[in-house]
Amino acid sequence: MSTLIAHLRSTVGAAHVLTHDDPTTDLSAWEQDWRKRAHGRAMAVVRPGNTAEVAAVVKACAAAGASIVPQGGNTGLVVGGVPDNSGTQVLLSLTRLNRVRAIDGANLTMTVDAGCVLQNLQTAAAQAGFLFPLSLAAEGSCTIGGNLATNAGGTQVLRYGNTRDLCLGLEVVTAQGEVWDGLSGLRKDNTGYDLRDLFVGSEGTLGIITAATLKLYPQPAAKLTAWAAVPSMQAAVELLGLAQQRLAAGLTGFEVMGQFALGLVDKHFPQLRVPLWQDTPYCVLLENSDFESEAHARGLFESLLETAFEQGTVTDAVVAENLTQAKGLWHIRESIPLAQAEEGLNIKHDISVPVSSIPAFCEATDAELQRAIPGMRLVNFGHLGDGNLHYNVQAPEGVDGKAFLRDEEERINTLVFDAVARFGGSISAEHGVGSLKATKLPHYKNPVALSLMRAIKTALDPQGLMNPGRVI
């Protein structure tokens, strides 16, 4: 493999090919996943600076028979972007591909490199007078290529859709090192198969996304946030229906948070001052984006909450008076995963269930988990508006988290995933499959669908070198 390393250094520059041969080089930032669940060993970490270099790296790896693991910001939660322990895989980091190539105001699009950090794209769009609505907790470090590769969701899927829905075109390096330029900003193009949607969500198993053309939206005239206490999950679903009826497309966020999840934030980040959580099983965070005025937005919100109080779906509520207060409320919601990490290792589930079935799913699965593991603590929160829950299980008080994962993860995953299947849901809503759920997919995915997926994988990556062991 020394010949391949030499070739890669001549392609991207010696400074951008990192190996373990140099004792002063620490590769752990690339070789360990964000949750510290897996730590691999790469043959090399290669950091190309443009699409042509990515293509050259892929061609060299294909010729040498070396598999490639693409990586963006390394914020994934399903162990899909780190190498295995063989020391034979090339870790391809795309973070140097970080240009905003163009913003087309008339077409409401922006074309960007795959290594652009999501928050930087939001800022670039805002500076041009537009909104790029993809928003998630890792936006300060995740990259748009990773968002596309996993079809990331976030807090505004209810109004704007997943990352797939925000993408009009892609530039992709194939497994053979060819470049497909599909960056057209067209909203209508019926000239054959939709290759864009094939690569979005494929987690680097079919090709490497190097750039994308994304949708932009006008900035709303006003954005208001409310925090409401609700007496049950059923009440939260009823509040969602009422909000959709009253706010229509203005409802851009609807998050549900369980009492224990908020209690962890209050415990580990008391400076955030979590409102209303102590006397209610759930709280809901609503966002109303209005294109008329703040007065109009506030009037709609007040009318919505007044009706909700009358119907008993809300027991208490606060409406943010300014942007600072609104950011504070959202910061509480985004701090739940960090608070859970502070509490200890946990078993995460990123599931989706039809919204109408969520109350029954929670009631049945909560009870089944408690029967199986008395004292287990449920960290339930997520994007109720689109049926996506982060239905996480924390060890009972005083139980070692590492031992809990080792002894109980398989049993708990099976229990939760079986329940998801019974209620017509999915075991992965927005985090992807990676290697963490790859072995589970055959149990919960339609066999015909799996057969088609394998056929596509074989056709596009016949050598099996693109992120092997992920998805299928």
Automatic annotation (TrEMBL):
Keyword field: FAD, Flavoprotein
Source domain of life: Bacteria
SUPFAM superfamilies according to UniProt: FAD-binding/transporter-associated domain-like, FAD-linked oxidases, C-terminal domain
Keyword Flavoprotein: yes
Occurrences of domain FAD-binding PCMH-type (ranges): 38-219
Family annotation (PROSITE patterns): FAD_PCMH
InterPro entries recorded: FAD-bd_oxidored_4_C (IPR004113), FAD-bd_PCMH (IPR016166), FAD-bd_PCMH-like_sf (IPR036318), FAD-bd_PCMH_sub1 (IPR016167), FAD-bd_PCMH_sub2 (IPR016169), FAD-linked_Oxase-like_C (IPR016164), FAD-oxidored/transferase_4 (IPR051264), Oxid_FAD_bind_N (IPR006094)
Family: Belongs to the FAD-binding oxidoreductase/transferase type 4 family.
Full protein name: FAD-binding oxidoreductase
Organism for this UniProt entry: Hydrogenophaga atypica
